[in-house]
Amino acid sequence: MMDPFFSIIIPCYNYGNVVGEAIDSCLNQSYKSVEIIVVNDGSKDSTEEVLKLYSDRATVITQKNKGLSLSRNVGAKNARGEWLLFLDADDQLIDGALEELARCAEHSEAGVIFGRTRQLKAGKLISRFNTQLEGPPSPCLCYFF
Q: What is the b/e burial string over 3-30, where b = at least 16 CB atoms within 10 angstroms of the residue's CB?
C-alpha cells in the first residue's frame, strides 16, 4: 500500500460536540490519498465516544493532556504522508480543498502551502483572513461556535 499524499492531523481536547464534523469534512473530500490522525488530548467530554465511531477510518491516538502543540507533534510523528495538514477539531475543510492543495503541491517546490480562510459564526460570514492573497477562497473553512 502506498503512503498517503496528505496526513491530516486533528488535535482534540473536549471537542466531542464538533470533532465528528471535522473528520467528516476530511472523509467527504474527493481526493482520497489521505490518512486522518486524531490526537485525543485527554478529553473529559464525549470525544472518546465520538472517535470510536471513526476508528475504522481514522487513526485515533489517546494521550494524557499535553496541550495543542505537543498533540500536533504526536500526530506528525505518526504521520506517513508526504504533506501534513493541521486541522483544528472545530474547523472543517470545504469541498475540493484537498484537490486544490494537491494541485498546488504537485506543481511547486515550496515547503509550505496555505490559502485563504473564511470565518463563520452560525453560518454567517464574519471575516476573511489572508485577504492579500489572490485567487479562489481557501480550501479551509473555519467554524467557531
A: ebbbbbbbbbbbbbebbbebbebbeebe
